[in-house]
Amino acid sequence: MEILTLSDYQSLAELRYQIRCFLSFSEQAARAAGLEPRQHQLMLGLKGLSRDARPTIGELAERLQIQHHSAVELVNRLAAAGYVRRRRAGEDRREVLLALSPKGEKVLRQLSVHHRSELRSAGPALVKALRQAMRGTRVANGTGVAAGKRRSSR
């Protein structure tokens, strides 16, 4: 069992604080743009998918680590507001693919520029906190996760 020092707890607490500061900024920016934070996250997840990933609700639910039905509700609201479009896949007409609308592209671009600006100013403190927290972490399997895997709520 690994021994943790007060310094280890302090560095983990600082990392958590820096992450929460950025997330708080992000939530406020999304709301100021007329979106709920999860809607912004879904739009960013959709735009940021790799070219080989299918832009499906299931894929986005995985990326956001939310239940499928929660992703459906987010997509429904985004589609009703004109930010996202649905289309049927060519080969499997049952599969629904998602894309940002021009309106969605515009608001996501504005939010992303704002986020990059915030990262330029707040990023160094976040990186420093991450480095300090990692110094106390013994990497057992090359990933920094000693005995687990990514949590999924699905």
Structural commentary:
With 154 residues, the chain is mainly alpha-helical. It has one domain (6-135): Winged helix-like DNA-binding domain superfamily/Winged helix DNA-binding domain (Arc Repressor Mutant, subunit A), CATH 1.10.10. It is built from 5 helices and 2 strands. It is elongated, with a radius of gyration of 19 Å. The model is unreliable at 138-154 (pLDDT under 50).
CATH class: Mainly Alpha
CATH topology: Arc Repressor Mutant, subunit A
Number of β-strand runs: 2
Helical amount: 55-70%
Distance between the termini: 30 Å
Q: Categorize the overall geometry.
A: elongated
Number of domains: 1
CATH architecture title: Orthogonal Bundle
What is Rg? Answer: 19 Å
Mean pLDDT: 89
Number of helices: 5
Query: Based on the structure, what is the oligomeric state of the protein chains?
Result: single chain
Strand content: 5-15%
Strand order of the largest sheet: 1-2
Reported for the largest beta sheet, the result is: 2 strands, antiparallel
Helix-and-strand structural type:
mainly alpha
So, the CATH homologous superfamily? Answer: Winged helix-like DNA-binding domain superfamily/Winged helix DNA-binding domain
| Element-by-element helix/strand order | HHHHEEH
Give the low-pLDDT segments: 138-154
